[in-house]
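Dear support,

I submitted the protein below through the web form. The confirmation email said the job was done, but the results page showed an empty box. After a refresh the structure appeared. I'm attaching both so you can tell me whether what I see now is the final result or a partial one.
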Amino acid sequence: MKKERGSLKRKIVVPILCIAVAVGMLSGCVEEVANIIPVASFTYTPTENIYVDTLITFTDASTDEDGTIASWSWDFGDGTNSTDKNPTHSYAAVDIYTVTLIVTDNDGNASDPYTMDITVSYVPPTAAFDYTPMVNITTATEITFTDNSTVGDANITTWAWDFGDGDTSNVTNPTHTYAAAGNYTVTLTVTDENEETDTTEEIVIEVTEAT
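What the results page shows now:
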């Protein structure tokens, strides 16, 4: 039993000595690890239908592998800036703006610039119409279509009607009679002075034979 205890002692002592030697060899030759610069990144909402005065929310998505982000420097591309982490911003004119974010970590190291382009557009018109009569439409019925479109940032200049039977019209409020019974899909596309367009959802008109 004594022999076994002595053997156990040797098994314990040897690893301890090895650790002590290893530590001694490493002392005085510790290599300094270089700081990893942070990586700037962000997202924003909304990502479409951005118009003048639309409030955009920017959300920081930057990372730092060996530290923390300490400061943010935003350039919105229109001469304005922010140091907030998650700023909001709106634009005063239609254009394409390049937004730049640079972040600095807790060691004072700055990231490379991260950029994204934001397109600010004119508000387009909204196409809409109704028609009369809406029931009991036959091949002898003259249908009156009434434009109910609303303007965006500019006046509507053209109307493009498609009656679904091969006939079209550029009149604001046209009339139309179908020559044959059937279901016809009518659409209206409007265009304004800024060349912004919109098309209505498809509206199906049921036409029966006149008796």
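Response: this is the final, complete result; the empty box was a page-load delay. The mean pLDDT is 88.
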